[in-house]
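SUBJECT: protein chain
CONTENTS: sequence, structure tokens:
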Amino acid sequence: MSAIDDKYLALGGPGGFLGNPADAGAGSEEMDTADRRGRFRDFERGSIYWKSQTGAHEVHGDIRIKWAQLGGERGFLGFPVTDELGTPDGRGRFNHFEGGSIYWKPETHAHEVHGAIRDKWASMGWERSRLGYPISDEKKTSDGRGRFSDFEGGRIHWTPERGAEEPETQTSQWSQFPGSPAGTARHDDIYFVDENTGWSVRATGLIHKTTDGGNTWALKLTKTGTHFRCIGFTSPSRGFAGNLGVGSYDAAVTDSNVLYQTFDGGDTWKNVPGFAEEGMKGLCAMYILDANHVYGGGRVRGPAYFIKSTDGGANWTIRNLTAMGVMNGIMDIYFQDPLNGFVVGMDPNKFSADCSPPYHGRLAKTTDGGETWTPVLTTDISCGYLWKMSWPTPQIGYVSMQQNGSYSEIAYYKTTDGGNNWVLKEIPLSSLGLGSSSFYLQGIGFVSPDEGWVGGTAGIPYPSSFLHTSDGGDTWSKSGYNNTYRINRIRFLNSGFGVAAGERLHVFRP
């Protein structure tokens, strides 16, 4: 058997997505490539290409069509060096080739990116950067001296003199969704699967849904005694919502169920059993890595439990991080891939209103999919906990700190090495014209490594309630407007579309 035969069988053979070998024409049997550098074989729904330096890899679908249009293995991309894979953001697909890559998602279709422009895009965080996915192939500039590729969030331009240059900082602005549900209860979380379809959850047991980009919101669930803290969807139909649970900071909660699920886009919801039975009290955060990998953590003020599913929510693993001695509260969770992830919250000390004994913020890391956790950061600041994370690239991350004592600086932390080391960053309240302990930090979100926003507070002038940086947190300016109070969660679907949940719901668009 050849290397192509081995790859074909590893992909499922005739029963796999490639189907049967092509039954007629060139490629119906394994053959030399036209350039004589390798071998290939065609199948019903794709092809496998091999050469000694790259091994055997499949290419299929729209990416295969684009590759063929660019000359296949004889073009500048050369042979595939990976099979088609899902992107880390769970929105698209890609193949890497000897000379570049082809990226695809339904909204942007398949486009190649290569050379110095690809290197610059990769350094910014690939599709997870503020640029998002490529929306053009690389092209010549009109004067013939340079090259460029367009992305969802801007253009990377290359010249011989200056090389590949990152585009200017986003000038997109935030605004309140025109149909944002009103009321006194905060929206604790918001989640969109595309720019039209999204959901929000509220402290009073409410779940709303929009299918028209936030122009209108329909109330889908009212569940008295429940405090929904988080929500996430693996598809437009399959989703999950977490409940704070009894005995935390909301005395109105009587519902001890931890997790609810829907199979019909949020029209109906049912409890997922098994969590309360294991001692878990509540769920405060969810992270959807892809259609199969779903992660959760909770809760505020403890106990700290981590949950995960690797089959889209059919089955769940539960780990008690309080019993492990790692931490006693989880407020947010993030996974870079199925093995490497982070949780943030508080150290193993118990919460107390008077901070006696003191408790501190803590961040822990896993490299084995959540089986074991290692504390990476424990804050010197006491009487507070780490609240929300934002990762504009796999290497650059930010985490906000909610301070429950007296303070004169807003505190958050930043990493530039993938979460191994964290640096305290502070915003003096005096620089904003605010008094002591007057900005209650919770939500944080970065659309790029340098540009981001923080919020969470209320009761101060609106402009000061939502802050903006364009230099990685070195300086901050006021960017709030009517109803930007109590921002708890900021999410970016891509570099040109973001959402935020607080007293109202907000959208970030170019």
The CA atoms of residues 242 and 259 lie 5 Å apart. The helical segments are 3-10, 61-69, 115-124.
